Amino acid sequence: MNLQFLLKLALTIALVLTASMLSKRPGFLGALVAALPVTSLLVLGWLYVETHDVQRVATMSMDIFWFVLGGLAFFPVLSLTLKQGWQPWLCFMLAGFAAFAGMSAAQYLLAHLRTPA
C-alpha cells in the first residue's frame, strides 16, 4: 500500500465516523456532514492529482450531479415509509430500490443523451 492510498482511506474513515458520531446527538450536524459533497470533492481532487486531466474531472463532475439527482429518491421514500410505521428493513429495502431505479434512469440518460466528446 502506498501513502496516497492510506491517506484516502484515513479521510474516508474519518468522514464516516464523524457523520455517524454527530448523528447520535440532537440537531442536524450529522445530516449536514453526511450531505456534504466531500466524497465527490475528494474523488474529483484525487482524479485531477493523478491525471491532470481537467476535461475528465469536468465530465465526472456532471456525471456525479446526475447520479446524485437519481439517488435522491432514497431519502423521501425512507422517511415516509418509516413514518408510516413500516418495518425498518422493508423501508431500507424500498428506499434502496427507489435510489437504484433513479440512478439507473440517470445512467440510461447519460448513456443515450450525452453528446459525443
Topology (SSEs and partners):
Elements lengths: L2 H21 L5 H7 L2 H14 L2 H18 L2 H10 L4 H26 L4
Instruction: Determine the number of helices (DSSP H or I, runs of at least 4 residues).
Output: 6
What's the total count of β strands? 0
Helix content: over 70%
Structural class: mainly alpha
State the end-to-end distance.
35 Å
Q: Write down the overall geometry.
A: flat
User: What percentage of amino acids are in beta strands?
Assistant: under 5%
Average of the residue pLDDT scores: 88
List SSEs in N-to-C order.
HHHHHH
> Cα-atom Rg, whole angstroms?
17 Å
* Biggest sheet architecture: none
Low-confidence stretches: none
Word description of this protein:
- The protein has 117 residues and is mostly helical.
- The chain has helices spanning 3-23, 29-35, 38-51, 54-71, 74-83, 88-113.
- The radius of gyration is 17 Å and the shape is flat.
